Amino acid sequence: MAINIKNREDGFTKLLHGMECFVNTLKVTFGPLGRHVALQKSGERPQLTRMGAEVSADFELPDSFQNMGVSLMREMALATHKKAGDGSVMSTLIAVELIKDLSRLALNHSIVDLGKGLRSASDSARASLIASAKPARTSRQMSDLMTTSVGGAVWVVEPVLKVLKKLGAFGVVTFSDSDSIENELTFQKGFTFDKSLISPYFDDPCKEFAELDDARILICADTIHNMEDVLRITEKVVEQDRPLLIIADKIGEEALSLLILNKNNGTLNCLAVKAPGFGAGRIDLLEDIAAFTGGKVFGDSLGISLASVMIDDLGRARKIRVERSRTIIMEGKGAKSRIAKRVKELKARMARETLDYEKQTLDDRTAKMTAGVANIGVGGYTERDRALRRVEITQAYAALRAGVGGGVIHGGGIGLLMTASELAGEKRRGAAHSARRALARALSAPFCALVDNSGASGPYMQEKIIDGGFKLGYNVATRKLEKLSSWSVIDPVTTVLAAIESAVSLAVTVMSSEVFIADEPYIMAPDENP
Hints:
Layout: E1 3-6, H1 8-27, E2 37-39, E3 47-49, H2 52-57, H3 64-84, H4 88-105, H5 111-132, H6 139-149, H7 157-167, E4 172-177, E5 184-193, E6 210-220, E7 223-224, H8 227-239, E8 244-248, E9 250-251, H9 253-265, E10 270-274, H10 279-293, E11 297-298, E12 315-322, E13 327-332, H11 336-352, H12 356-370, E14 372-378, H13 383-406, E15 408-410, H14 414-425, H15 430-443, H16 445-453, H17 458-467, E16 472-475, E17 480-483, E18 490-492, H18 493-511, E19 516-519
Parallel strand pairs: 4-14, 6-8, 6-11, 7-9, 8-10
Antiparallel strand pairs: 1-19, 2-3, 5-13, 5-14, 6-12, 12-13, 15-18, 16-17
Helix pairs in contact: 1-3, 1-4, 3-4, 3-18, 4-15, 4-18, 5-14, 5-15, 5-18, 6-13, 8-9, 11-12, 14-15, 16-17
């Protein structure tokens, strides 16, 4: 296919136009008073949504270079959301304002010097935000944090706080759709580790996670190479008509192909996930899983070959859920006496340990062995209603975890305005000074967007708050200026940091681009068959 090449002036103009189209569309959904966007996808019924992810998913412009800008913005927003659980729209607002400002400054300054100055300004903003963050410990702070993250949807607070009260900080929470209009809470024993599928071919891209019911679990500390060993084990599991989870460091190409083939053929419902940990620590963690599930750890490094595996050596669990970044084993069938013995061993090692890091690691492992798993079944009147509410509560829980772990700052764009004011007040020379001022102006964009969506003037409110010495903040939900001393709108600092870092990274990369290349669109001749 032919390609189209544009120089910096032409290519950058189209790229920026695509970015602005994308961000201006997302911006109207931002905040508690954001508007809906009407979507009409090919072959589907039209729908109204305020979910930025739905708006951005199929956003495409006819011009290849404009669409390049859309794709860059979309990927940055997804990366921010994946890293922090939120902040995707915030990052796009900061990024587009930053790129527009830098394009003007590039007329008088070196791109390289602007990039260095921008990264320095980003480091200063990061230090300022971390210094201003406060821990979220009380139920009131947690409630405010969750409510802010979902634009005032207070219904998310009660079920999440019930789970935290029951399970504590180390409990695992999953979300599903309820069959009724009411929310449903269920609690069970569970064990989780931060590893996922070895191969994407085990995954169904249309689902958020993969599940196995009443599964058998093969636990291996090494790489599984021998296809015959895998075939022998799978035959035994198939005879019992049960699904199989394999936990291993790696699986050889032939053995992996056999498992995927069996899964696709419907012969065996199986999943394979990467074993947690490294080296000797991996074996230790696998022993925890073995105790919880009633299984046995195999591996040449232990002197126990897979050739000796019997069906009774496999672990068992009532349900297994494999998500994008973690695996959850629910209702493991390990004997209570064996689990208690393992917990006792971990506590004894913790008492003997002198290093704080190792003590904390052992404490975390003990908590995982004893904490449970909660599932919040999200109710609603329709399937669409349940889907939207599930997104809200998932986002609220992610914000809560981020806020409890990293602290919170003033939300509603006020924390960003404070940081912007500090950056603008610092004196630098040349490109470094210009870059700091550019970042300061870009950090005010989320606040202005929130206020504009409430019907007020963003720049006017920004000036009024700064002139007042940040004693007041504008609450867009109530459309009133409120004292910051009693401010209940808070954001996780990790979310804000992720948004700034993503925006700065994209801005520096785009500004250093000199040539833009895209496929030439194919134009069908009038007499050509499609």
